[in-house]
Recover the amino acids of this structure.
C-alpha cells in the first residue's frame, strides 16, 4: 500500500464561541491546536482519502462540498473521500441546531474548505511511501455508558446524576481499533490510526475549562504517539452517542489521562501486531468504497435544521470504505454505541470501525428502545424510531457488497476454519 499523509491547523481565533454546550460560550484561551488529519491510500488501482477533523460535526451540505472538491483533486468518485469529526466540544460551531441556526460559523467553514483543499494538494504532491498494513484491536476501559436504565425501563442521564456513575452498567464499546502502516524499507511505523468511542468532553469543566479551545483527548492521543513513535497519527471517534470518557468534564488531567492511556494501548497494539505479522498483516490491500442511501421519516412532533424545514422524509447516507479485510463505516450523526456494535457484529469483515459524524449531522441516532426509555439522546432524536435499524441494515448490506468485490473467492466472510488452522500452527510447537 502506498500512502501519503499530512495535517493542518484549523484552530479558530480565541473569542470564537465554543460548540457543544451553551450557544453563547465565548472562548477566552487556547489549550492546544485543532487539526485536520488527512491520509491518502493507493492500492495501485484505487485511491482513497480519509480526513478527520477536530470539530463537533458538519452539516450535510458542507460534507458534500468537501467530498466533491477533494474528489476532484484526487480524480476519483465522491465515495472515495470519507470524512469524520472527532466531536470535540471545545471547537467552533460548525453544525446547525434546529433552534439556533444563527450560531453557525459560516466564514470559518468557508476557510475550512480552503484549508482542506490545500492540505490534500500538499499530501498528493509529496512522494508516496511504500508500506505494509497491520491491524489490531484491544479492549480499553476508558469509557462508560452515560445512560442508566432502571428496571422500569426509564433512563437516567448520568451527567446530570454523577452520583449514579458507580452503578453504570450500560452496554459499552470498549474496542480501541487500529491500523498501522510500516515503511517497507525502514520497517518503522510511519502512520497510526486509532478508533475509539467516547465523547471528547474530558476537558470541559466549569469556569475556564468550558471557555477554551481544545482538541480534547484525541489531541492528547495524537501528541503522545507523534512524540513517542515519531509517526503520523489520526484519531477517529467511534459510535460515541452514549459513551463518555472516564473523568469526563473534569479538566486537563482527564484529557491527558484518557488520551495517553489510549495512546499507550495503541502503541502496545503496534508492537503486538508487528511481532505477529502472520496474524495481523493484511495480505489483501484492495481498496473498495460505496455510499448507500437510507430513506427515513421525520419523527412526529420534532423539528429539523433550517435546511430541512417542511420535509417529512430525509435521505441519510451510510458511507463505507474497505481496506482489505478492514471496513470503515461513516455514519450521519451521533450513533449510539449499541448500533455501532450491531454493525460490527453483523459485518462480514474481520474488523469494522465506525466513523462518527461522517456523512452529515442529524443529531442522535438511537436504537428503538432508547426512544421508549427516554433520556437525553432518545428525546433528541428527530427521525423515526426504526432509523437505527435501517442504518444498521444498510451498512451491513453495503459491507457485503464491498467484500464481494474485494474477495471474490470469499464473497461473504473470511475463511475462518483456515484462519484458525494457521493460528494454531503458529502457536503450537
Amino acid at each position: 500500500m502506498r500512502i501519503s499523509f499530512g495535517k493542518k491547523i484549523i484552530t479558530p481565533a480565541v473569542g470564537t464561541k465554543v460548540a457543544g454546550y451553551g450557544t453563547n460560550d465565548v472562548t477566552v484561551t487556547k489549550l492546544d491546536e485543532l487539526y485536520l488529519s488527512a491520509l491518502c491510500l493507493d492500492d495501485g488501482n484505487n485511491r482513497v482519502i480519509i480526513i478527520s477533523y477536530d470539530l463537533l460535526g458538519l452539516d450535510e451540505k458542507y460534507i458534500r462540498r468537501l467530498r466533491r472538491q477533494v474528489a476532484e483533486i484526487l480524480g476519483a468518485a465522491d465515495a472515495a473521500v470519507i470524512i469524520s469529526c472527532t466531536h470535540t466540544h471545545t471547537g467552533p460551531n460548525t453544525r446547525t441546531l434546529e433552534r439556533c441556526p444563527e450560531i453557525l460559523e459560516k466564514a470559518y467553514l468557508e476557510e475550512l474548505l480552503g484549508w482542506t483543499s490545500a492540505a490534500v494538494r500538499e499530501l498528493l504532491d509529496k512522494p508516496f511511501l511504500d508500506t505494509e498494513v497491520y491491524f489490531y484491536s484491544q479492549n480499553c476501559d476508558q469509557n462508560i455508558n452515560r445512560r442508566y436504565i432502571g428496571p422500569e425501563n426509564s433512563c437516567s442521564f448520568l451527567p446530570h446524576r454523577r452520583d449514579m456513575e458507580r452503578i453504570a452498567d450500560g452496554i459499552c464499546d470498549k474496542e480501541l481499533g487500529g491500523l498501522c502502516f510500516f515503511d517497507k524499507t525502514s520497517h518503522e511505523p510511519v502512520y497510526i490510526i486509532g478508533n475509539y468511542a467516547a465523547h471528547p468532553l474530558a476537558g470541559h469543566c466549569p469556569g475556564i475549562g468550558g471557555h477554551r479551545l481544545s482538541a480534547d483527548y484525541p489531541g492528547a492521543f495524537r501528541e503522545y504517539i507523534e512524540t513517542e513513535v515519531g509517526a503520523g497519527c489520526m484519531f477517529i471517534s467511534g459510535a460515541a452517542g452514549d459513551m463518555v470518557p472516564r473523568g469526563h468534564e473534569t479538566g486537563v488531567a482527564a484529557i491527558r489521562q484518557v488520551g495517553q492511556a489510549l495512546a499507550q494501548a495503541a502503541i502496545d497494539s503496534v508492537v503486538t501486531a508487528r511481532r505477529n505479522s502472520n496474524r495481523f498483516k493484511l495480505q489483501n490491500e484492495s481498496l473498495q468504497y460505496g455510499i448507500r442511501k437510507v430513506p427515513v421519516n421525520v419523527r412526529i412532533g420534532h423539528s429539523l435544521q433550517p435546511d430541512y424545514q417542511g420535509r417529512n422524509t430525509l435521505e441519510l447516507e451510510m458511507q463505507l470504505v474497505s481496506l482489505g479485510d478492514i471496513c470503515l463505516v461513516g455514519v450521519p450523526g451521533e450513533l449510539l454505541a449499541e448500533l455501532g456494535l450491531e454493525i460490527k457484529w453483523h459485518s462480514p469483515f474481520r474488523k469494522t470501525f465506525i466513523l462518527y459524524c461522517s456523512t452529515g449531522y442529524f443529531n442522535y441516532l438511537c436504537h428503538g428502545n432508547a426512544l421508549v426509555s427516554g433520556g437525553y439522546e432518545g428525546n433528541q432524536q428527530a427521525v423515526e424510531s426504526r432509523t437505527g435499524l435501517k442504518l444498521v441494515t444498510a451498512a451491513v448490506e453495503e459491507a457485503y457488497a464491498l467484500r464481494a468485490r474485494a474477495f471474490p473467492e470469499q464473497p461473504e466472510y473470511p475463511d475462518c476454519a483456515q484462519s484458525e488452522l494457521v493460528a494454531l500452527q503458529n502457536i503450537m510447537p
Remarks:
- DSSP finds ten helices and 20 strands in the chain.
